[in-house]
Amino acid sequence: MAAQLPLIGIAVSPPEDGSHNYNLNPEYSEAIRRAGGAPLAFALIPDDDYVERVMPLVHGLLLTGSQYDLDPAWYGAQPESGTLDPNYDRDNFDRLILDWAGEHSLPVLGICHGCQAINVALGGTLIQDIPAEVSHALNHRTPSNTGEFAHEIELAPGSLLNPGGETLVTRVNSAHHQAVGRVAPALKPIAWSADGVIEALEAADLERQFILAVQWHPERLAADDPLSAKVIEVLVAAARRWMAKDSHPEIVN
Asked: How many alpha carbons lie under 13 Å from residue 49 in its C-beta half-sphere?
């Protein structure tokens, strides 16, 4: 019998055009499948009963990017001039699934908007508009759909993405205008761009819960870029370990 693949729940994004179709780039699912996981997209239903029913099905969680900004009220701020409208369904759904994941120590990966949601959910804040708030800012809002590299980052040694003993300089793509501001107490920064923008976070206590959050879009580069592939692979590996612990909660009928 083939080994069971860890199921990775994916938080989809709401449609941009006002239609009723969810937005999920297939590259997320393909990257998970390539890393040895099985993707499972959630419906965007910010309801406690729905979350309690579907979250026990999965062994890991992926929060995707989004064309919307987070509601600044979530982190106690007023919207600035460069802040885009939020989508409250996505914000509320992210909160619910992140709360569930925290209660059950479920492995979590956040990408771009998902990275920001994780930081805010755990008590951090955001830079609402990089060009307005960061001196000598790089261009972080280049199109990422081509999979082209945009700028360099430095990865801290001894981290999930750079377990060696020396700082690693590499390149990433980039498609965001917001970024992590104050880092949540449960997280620590592990990557930065040259202008000081935080490019990745991980859990301060990885024994308690696997959390990784990256500001770039590794799903678009994972087929050819070793670092981006590793982002997805470490999530799937953590999900497999979580599944093996036999700590999966009972599914309520």
From this structure: 1
Mention every residue, 6+ apart, whose C-beta is less than 8 A from residue 191. Answer: 153, 154, 155, 156, 159, 161, 198, 199, 200, 214
Domain positions in the chain: 7-244
pLDDT of 145 reads 63
Question: Which residue positions in the chain have pLDDT lower than 50?
Answer: 1, 247-253
Length of the chain: 253
DSSP class of 73: G
Which of 26, 60, 21 has its CA nearest to residue 223? 26
What is the Cα–Cα distance from 240 to 234, expressed in whole angstroms?
A: 10
Determine the CATH number of domain 7-244: 3.40.50.880
- Asked whether 63 and 11 are in contact (CB, 8 A), the reply is yes
Q: Are 242 and 60 in contact (CB under 8 A)?
A: yes
Q: Distance between CA 15 and CA 185 in Å, rounded?
A: 32
Helix (H) or strand (E) holding 27: helix 26-34
pLDDT for position 251 = 42
What pLDDT shows up at residue 141?
84
Which of 88, 42, 37 lies closest to 64 in space, CA to CA? 42
Q: What is the pTM of this model?
A: 0.93
Q: State how far Cα 140 lies from the chain centre.
A: 17
Degrees to nearest 5, angle at CA 186 with 14 and 182 = 70
DSSP 222: T
The pair of structure tokens assigned to 97 is 């699934």
pLDDT at 249: 47
| Residue 170, H or E segment | strand 168-172
Q: Which residues pair with 171 in a beta bridge?
A: 152
Q: List, by residue number, the catalytic residues.
A: 112, 217, 219
